[in-house]
Structure formats: C-alpha cells, structure tokens
From TrEMBL:
Protein name in UniProt: ABC transporter permease
GO annotation, cellular component aspect: plasma membrane
Parts of the chain that traverse the membrane: 6-23, 35-54, 86-111, 117-135, 155-175, 207-229, 241-274, 286-305
Subcellular location: Cell membrane
Gene Ontology MF, one: transmembrane transporter activity
Membrane topology listed for this record: Multi-pass membrane protein
Cell inner membrane found in the keyword field: no
One protein family per Pfam: BPD_transp_2
C-alpha cells in the first residue's frame, strides 16, 4: 500500500477523533450506528459508479435509474395502488429494470461513440420519464412487511440495509479483484489502446460495467423505498454527485486505472462522518457544502499532483 492509498483511511480516523473531541454526542454508539445506516445507500451507489470511474468514464444516470427502480418495486410488492404482491421477485424485477437501463448507457457509449457523461445524462432522463409514467400522479406506499423491515429491524445494532450495503461492498470487491470484468475495467482506464491491441474486445466489457453499475443503482433505489415505505420519482436525487465525491475522496481517480471499491467505501465513510460531525458541532448547513467542496478539490489535487510531477519533462 502506497502513502496515497493510506491517506483516506488516516484522514477518516483523524476526522473521527477530532469530532469525538469536539462533541460528546458524536462518539456515542447510537451516533456511530446512525452514521453506518446513513452511509448504506450511498455505499451501494458508490460501488456501482466506482467500476465506471475505473474505466475513466463518468456516470450521471444514478438518479433516473434509482427513481425507476424505486417506483417499480413499490408497484410490484404489496402496495396501495394495485393487487401485486410479488415479494422478492418484485425486488429482483426492479433491479433487472435498472440493469437494463445501465445496459442502455453502455450500448449508447460504444455504438454512438458519445461521451459517457452525455449518454448517462440521457439515460437519467429516460429513467425519470419511466418513473414518472409509472408514478401516475398517485404515490405508491408499500405494505410489504419484509421490504419495510429492512430499514427498521436490526442485527448486532445495525439495520439490515447496512448489512446489505456491506454485502454489496464485498461482492463489488470480489468482482473487481478476481473477475475478468474487474481486471479489464482497470486496464481500460489505464491504457485502453494497449488492451485493444492485445486482442481484447473492449466494447462488451464497457457495456457489462455499465450494466453492473445499473444493477447497483437499482438495488439502492429499492433500499430508499424501504427507508421511506413509499416509491418516489426523486428517490435518487443527488446520489450521482455524492457517489462521485465519495469515490474521489477515497482515492478512485476520475481518469481511471486507480482506486477501487474499498477505496471508494472509505470515501463514503469519510464524507458521511464529516457531514454528521458538522451537524453535531452545530455548523450551518450553508457552510457544510462549502467544506465538503473544499475537501473534494483537495482530494483531486492530491491525486493528480503526483501524476503531473511524473509526466513533467525535465530540461
């Protein structure tokens, strides 16, 4: 592990210790549980977007995909709008819908040769449109006991959503570390031309990465529905930039080829601890955004500066 990789975990520990000194409420077990529960949805979204960032692409489709998944699962499980009661099958169908939308992003990227931020922005709009059509002007409230219990019931002090997020992080790490998809995502971000010249067809792996990311977003949409006990079109509002922020703060480069799921997860915890700590010590919400913005800029600068020095021509 390099010093740059150790930076975010060290920063997380330092920030936690500082807020623990400044606020007695911050260091309580209840607040730690609250931090972990709050970070759960963002962690799942960040898992998906990390694979896209590893390729050097940008994904802005999370809000639309999460909205479509949230409304879909609310209408497929027991609810106040229809007689559906598909249970786990409804959850799987909602995640499948999200994966299809993610696949559309990948196909648009490789077939139309349009920059990823434009294609994913378009898919975000498509997802929001689909969600709005399914919403139909009447909010679907869920009555499925199993889905609702995920945000309420606890195991070892943490909600089931937190454990679900931990499982997603583990799955994401295993895919990144041991699968061909994970290795090629790194290679595409590091040197796509070299990978193509070696005989690897890059396009299918790009589509697969966006499909995987869409599935993560879909699961996150289901988690938000569990938290709210209702399906909302705006269930994913703000999660795209929050996930990118967390990934970058954790050490995943926007240019691709460096970082990973564990790096990004540390970034999620760092951002969540920072937000929680600022609230605990009474910092105005207007200042919180500015502080977080400064941290993102500093994190990006710290990650890019060594590369600039390495590429500098000495005369």
């Amino acid at each position: 592990m390099s010093l740059r990789d150790a930076g975010p975990p060290i920063a997380l520990v330092v920030v936690f210790l500082v807020f623990s000194v400044l606020s007695s409420e911050f260091r309580t077990l209840g607040n730690v549980q609250n931090i972990m529960d709050t970070a759960s949805v963002l962690a799942v979204v960040t898992c998906g977007i990390t694979f896209v960032l590893l390729m050097g692409s940008i994904d802005l489709s999370a809000p639309g995909i999460m909205g479509a998944s949230a409304i879909a699962v609310a209408l497929l499980v027991a609810n106040n709008r229809n007689d559906n009661d598909l249970g786990l099958a409804g959850v799987l169908m909602a995640v499948l819908l999200a994966a299809v939308l993610g696949c559309v992003s990948g196909l648009a990227l490789v077939l139309l040769k349009v920059p990823s931020f434009m294609t994913t922005l378009g898919v975000c709009a498509i997802g929001l449109g689909v969600a709005t059509l399914m919403f139909g002007g009447v909010q679907p409230n869920i009555s499925d006991a199993t889905l609702a219990s995920l945000a309420v019931d606890r195991l070892l002090g943490f909600s089931y959503l937190t454990w679900l997020a931990a499982a997603c992080v583990l799955v994401g790490y295993l895919v990144q570390r041991y699968s061909r998809l994970g290795r090629y995502a790194y290679a595409i971000g590091g040197a796509e031309e070299v990978l193509s010249l070696s005989g690897v067809k890059v396009a299918p792996y790009k589509v697969a990465v966006f499909t995987l990311a869409g599935a993560f977003y879909g699961l996150a949409g289901v988690m938000v529905t569990s938290q709210l006990s209702a399906g909302l079109v705006q269930a994913g509002k703000g999660y795209d930039f929050a996930a990118i922020t967390a990934a970058v703060v954790g050490g995943t480069l926007l240019t691709g080829g460096r970082g990973g799921v564990l790096h990004s997860t540390v970034g999620v915890l760092l951002v969540t601890v920072l937000t929680n700590g600022l609230v605990q010590i009474g910092v105005s919400p207007y200042w919180q955004g500015g502080v977080q913005g400064l941290i993102v800029v500093a994190a990006v600068a710290a990650a890019v500066l060594p590369q600039r020095r390495r590429n500098q021509v000495v005369k």
